[in-house]
């Protein structure tokens, strides 16, 4: 208990900071098509709990480039209270105050009408970006997404399309332990079934204005032993960069008396957005306000749609990432087993994490996942984090096992879909974690010649609504539906009438914003947009 108390004192001393700015850590902009060129734009933002509160945000929409004035603007409205991150152990979970470094998530929404255009740039910003080890002169923190809702066509004025952006499943602020190999996810789900490509980018401080990276730590030789003499020489690196935004350990080659560092341990997968990194530097005596032990990065998710036989770029979202390096002492991170047990119908098979799991729209697939921990006495929990993939549930079975069930809705576009699963231990004060991706290949249910048309996506009315909303399910029969907020948290359970009609009267204290009604049978989710009471 005494050692634990001192650990809390050290956290307070080392991570406390003066409230000189908003200390935004990261976030992203996403949008959802509502019909008739209307879009619900959502700002997810993560701030350091030890900073001051956020100021109001304004959405700016431009179709003429960075140097043109915004033709559409709207104030962002906060949806619900801030939600503290859960990477601290149980005694500190949910804590958000000025004496502890933690992440608090906020959600804002705005609704705008965007006439068809070749490229809309949606953005918002705020001063100031906090000090970090890898940015020379932190300026504004700028969030951006793009939307092309008018695709050029030969001999025409263009094809007007509707598009909803991909939604990420994991928050962008990460605790990463020094000298431990961590796997992080930027996995996203696209509701339209568009193809996604991930890329590392330089963070922006304004439209088309990248930040300036600081010099990477000097490649100073280290004496590993004096008798016999053995010297380690790191590989020289000039500045931090988009592809190496954090100081990491390196692979070692050679034999004594001279060993050399090569291949920095920072890997990025453009297919999935996953990052594998092993931080190589931690300073326990540095003042937190200097930004030492903290790093900013950015990932762009580009979505392509097949139109007229070609893949066309129709939108992008940028994720502002934030790495917080800490010393986990003797704690070792959980390990997700590379072997999965997959039950598909009556067939049970064993396969690896890297293999694609086949799935049919409308039919459940069950996957048994196992994780282990090398620290005696720790309890493991598996979670879906802020999973955005509809039709996915996770049941913890104990002893580091969980059963993931994926039932693709009938209207799911055939293709590859990924679900991020995180294993967490209960180390204190900060839990260790590892995130891995399960990949499903969804196919149409049944032979194409005999397959019935996919059920139409149910719509709600009126939209937006204030006090009550009604909608009709695609199939009749009394059914149970779960109403979830934008973070995937259940806020209500309703039951449809025998004819499939549904009426929801939300509690008065539920804030305005976007909600999803998910049928228990895995059918298509219904978007419910609640506006603030007048």
Can you give keywords for this protein?
13-stranded mixed beta sheet, mainly beta, single chain, globular, T9SS type A sorting domain-containing protein, six-stranded antiparallel beta sheet, 43 strands, 1 helix, 534 residues, disordered N terminus, 46% strand
In short:
This is T9SS type A sorting domain-containing protein. The protein is mainly beta and 534 residues long.
Q: How large a portion of the residues is in β-strands, by DSSP E?
A: over 45%
Low-confidence stretches: 1-21, 447-456
Report the span from N to C terminus: 52 Å
Number of helices: 1
- Based on CA atoms alone, the radius of gyration comes out at 24 Å
User: On the 0-100 scale, what is the average pLDDT?
Assistant: 85
How many β-strands, per DSSP? 43
What is the chains' assembly state? Answer: single chain
Class by SSE composition = mainly beta
* Helix content percent band: under 10%
Shape: globular
Main sheet overview: 13 strands, mixed
Structure, explained:
With 534 residues, the protein is an all-beta fold. The chain is 3% helix and 46% strand. The chain is built from 1 helix and 43 strands. Strand 39 and strand 40 form a beta hairpin. The longest helix has 14 residues, at 2-15. This is T9SS type A sorting domain-containing protein. Keywords: Signal. It comes from Hymenobacter armeniacus. Residues 1-21 form the signal peptide.
Secondary-structure topology with pairs:
Elements: H1 2-15, E1 24-35, E2 38-48, E3 58-62, E4 72-75, E5 77-78, E6 83-84, E7 103-113, E8 120-126, E9 141-147, E10 150-151, E11 159-160, E12 167-168, E13 173-177, E14 182-184, E15 188-189, E16 195-201, E17 204-206, E18 209-210, E19 222-226, E20 229-233, E21 250-253, E22 258-264, E23 266-268, E24 275-277, E25 294-307, E26 310-326, E27 335-336, E28 339-344, E29 347-352, E30 357-360, E31 365-372, E32 381-383, E33 392-398, E34 401-406, E35 415-424, E36 433-443, E37 460-461, E38 469-472, E39 480-484, E40 490-495, E41 501-504, E42 513-519, E43 526-530
Parallel strand pairs: 13-26, 20-22, 30-36
Antiparallel strand pairs: 1-2, 1-26, 2-7, 3-4, 3-8, 5-7, 6-7, 8-9, 9-26, 10-11, 12-15, 14-24, 16-25, 17-18, 19-20, 21-22, 23-24, 25-26, 27-31, 28-29, 28-31, 31-34, 32-35, 33-34, 35-36, 37-38, 38-41, 39-40, 39-42, 42-43
């Amino acid at each position: 208990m005494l050692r634990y108390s001192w650990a809390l004192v050290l956290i307070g001393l080392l991570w406390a900071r003066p409230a000189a700015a908003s200390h935004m850590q990261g976030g992203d902009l996403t949008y959802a098509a509502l019909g008739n060129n209307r879009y619900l734009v959502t700002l997810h933002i993560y701030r350091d709990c030890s900073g001051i509160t956020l100021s109001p945000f304004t959405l700016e929409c431009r179709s003429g480039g960075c140097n043109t004035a915004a033709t559409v603007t709207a104030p962002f409205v906060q949806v619900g209270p801030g939600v503290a991150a859960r990477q601290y152990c149980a005694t500190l979970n949910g804590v958000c105050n000025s004496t502890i470094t933690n992440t608090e998530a906020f959600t804002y929404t705005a609704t705008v009408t965007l006439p068809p255009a070749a490229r809309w740039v949606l953005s918002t910003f705020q001063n100031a970006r906090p000090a970090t080890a890898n940015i020379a002169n932190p300026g504004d923190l700028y969030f951006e997404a793009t939307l092309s809702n008018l695709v050029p066509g030969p001999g025409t004025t263009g094809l007007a399309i509707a598009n909803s952006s991909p939604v990420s499943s994991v928050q962008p602020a990460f605790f990463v332990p020094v000298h431990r190999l961590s796997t992080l996810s930027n996995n996203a789900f696209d509701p339209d079934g568009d193809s996604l490509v991930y890329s590392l980018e330089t963070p922006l401080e304004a439209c088309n204005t990248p930040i300036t990276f600081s010099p990477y730590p000097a490649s100073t030789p280290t004496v590993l032993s004096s008798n016999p003499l053995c010297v380690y020489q790191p590989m020289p690196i000039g500045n931090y960069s988009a592809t190496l935004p954090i100081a990491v350990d390196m692979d070692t080659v050679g034999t004594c008396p001279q060993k050399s560092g090569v291949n920095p341990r920072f890997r990025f997968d453009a297919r999935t957005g996953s990052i594998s990194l092993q931080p190589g530097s931690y300073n326990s005596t540095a003042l937190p306000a200097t930004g030492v032990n903290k790093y900013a990065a950015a990932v762009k998710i580009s979505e392509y749609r097949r139109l007229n036989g070609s893949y066309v770029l129709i939108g992008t979202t940028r994720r502002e990432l934030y790495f917080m390096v800490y010393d986990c002492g003797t704690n070792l991170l959980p390990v997700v087993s590379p072997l999965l047990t997959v039950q598909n119908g009556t067939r049970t098979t064993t396969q690896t994490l890297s293999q694609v799991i086949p799935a049919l729209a409308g039919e459940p697939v069950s996957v048994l996942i196992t994780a282990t921990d090398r620290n005696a006495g720790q309890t493991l929990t598996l979670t879906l984090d802020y999973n955005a993939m509809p039709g996915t549930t996770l049941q913890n079975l104990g002893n580091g096992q969980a059963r993931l069930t994926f039932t693709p809705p009938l209207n799911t576009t055939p293709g590859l879909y990924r679900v991020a699963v995180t294993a967490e231990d209960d180390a204190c004060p900060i839990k260790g974690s590892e995130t891995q991706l399960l990949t499903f290949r969804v196919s149409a249910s049944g032979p194409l010649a005999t397959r019935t048309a996919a059920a139409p996506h149910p719509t709600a009315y009126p939209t937006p609504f204030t006090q009550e909303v009604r909608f009709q399910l695609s199939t009749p029969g009394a059914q149970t539906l779960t109403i979830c907020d934008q973070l995937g948290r259940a806020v209500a359970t309703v039951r449809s009438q025998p004819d499939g009609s549904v009426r929801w009267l939300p509690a008065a204290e539920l804030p305005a914003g976007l909600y999803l009604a998910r049928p228990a049978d895995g059918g298509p989710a219904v978007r419910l947009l609640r506006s603030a009471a007048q």
